[in-house]
Every structure is written in C-alpha cells, then in structure tokens.
Structure to design on (84 residues):
C-alpha cells in the first residue's frame, strides 16, 4: 500500500473516529506516515515546499536551484549563524 493511500486512510479514520482514544491513535498514525513520506522525499533529493522553521513558502527559484532545501533563505541564514 502506498504512503499516500495510508495517509488518506489515517486522515479519514481520525476525522470520523467517535472515541477520543481512536481519534488520538489515528492522529499519531497520520503524523508517523507524514514523517515517513517526508523522509522518503528527502532521501530522493527532494526538499520542502514550506520552510521547516517559519512555515512560509520556499520560493520556487530557491527550490529549483537547490531542490533539497527545507528552509527559506532567512531561516537558513539563522541556522548557519547558530552553527558557526
């Protein structure tokens, strides 16, 4: 079963669950599957559409120039400053 299908099923289960425990379990599964999809994308050299730090969209020009990026230029600069 593909990850997208699993994500769709987990989302539907979380949305329609009547018991709080079932809903929480479905949300946890949805988070796990989303993380798996992100890791697979990164392993294949794909970055992110939205910045991991601030949540703003990463401009298409930046994503084309460096497809593996996960942060916007401003947040990447801040990360570099913290490291260095």
């Amino acid at each position: 079963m593909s990850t997208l299908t699993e994500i769709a099923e987990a989302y539907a289960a979380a949305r329609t669950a009547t018991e709080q425990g079932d809903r929480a379990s479905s949300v946890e599964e949805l988070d796990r599957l989303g993380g798996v999809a992100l890791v697979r994308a990164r392993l294949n050299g794909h970055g992110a559409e939205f910045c991991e730090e601030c949540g703003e969209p990463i401009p298409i020009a930046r994503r084309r120039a460096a497809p593996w990026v996960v942060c916007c230029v401003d947040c990447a600069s801040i990360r570099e400053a913290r490291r260095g």
